Amino acid sequence: MTNKEHAPAYKTTPKHLYARARKLLKxxxxxxxLLESALSHPxxxxxxxxxxxxxxxxxxxxxxxxxxxxxxCRRLYEKFPLADEGELSKLRSILVSRKMLxxxxxxxxxxxxxxxxxxxKGVPERDKAKIFADTFEAFLAALYFDQGLPKxxxxxxxxxxxxxDARRLYRVDPNPKSTLQxxxxxxxxxxxxxxxxxxxxxxxxxxxxxxxxKAEAAGRSxxxxxERAASLLLRLIREKTAQRLxxxxxxxxxxxxxxxxxxxxxxxx
Length: 269
Known about the structure:
Elements: H1 15-25, H2 32-39, H3 42-47, H4 57-79, H5 85-95, H6 98-107, H7 110-113, H8 118-121, H9 129-147, H10 149-160, H11 166-170, H12 176-188, E1 193-199, E2 202-209, E3 213-219, H13 222-268
Antiparallel strand pairs: 1-2, 2-3
Helix pairs in contact: 2-9, 4-5, 4-9, 6-9, 9-10, 12-13
């Protein structure tokens, strides 16, 4: 399929979908079948097989994922010229994670437009993360085929702009336990220690690492409580590291100032 492809023959689609999309997304599609294809989840298509000519959702998702990775990799390469391959890979994995795409699907209102089956409508929003993330990628492909790469890149970069900041990115890390393990191995050559407690409302995890650093968090499941605790400990470690680096810079500046003063006194003699 190319971005010059013409719409296939099928019955007229609901006009309210295009109107809502134009209002919420601030975008106007020339080829409306592409918009409907991206916003019609497979679960919805199984219940409503009225338009067999729609573009395959999974193919759009695949292509959108490719566009997303290209744009994100290029922007990270430009934004962080001193970052090595490992750091760039870590930042990319956060930016293209399901958690991030779920957040962006809600932020852009794509989550309000996606058509899903009746059985999924009653599912809590947090459990639809994969559906919304997949739809976000399918939408990117539809946008590309309708309006071309330059406009798609501009739209994507505007949406992601607030997140091209390493400190903010780590706050939405989709795998904080893995990140914490990397940090503790690098800093202290040890793994973080987790202690799980059962409570009436779920689970509580206490995680510790390094020189008496620890954090605790509760969650409905073991995984949720461990991830929350790991995120809190990571934040604490980064705060302590930032404080240490600030103190070291201040100490070096004071040392250079004293050295400069001594040099001036020697010259004065």
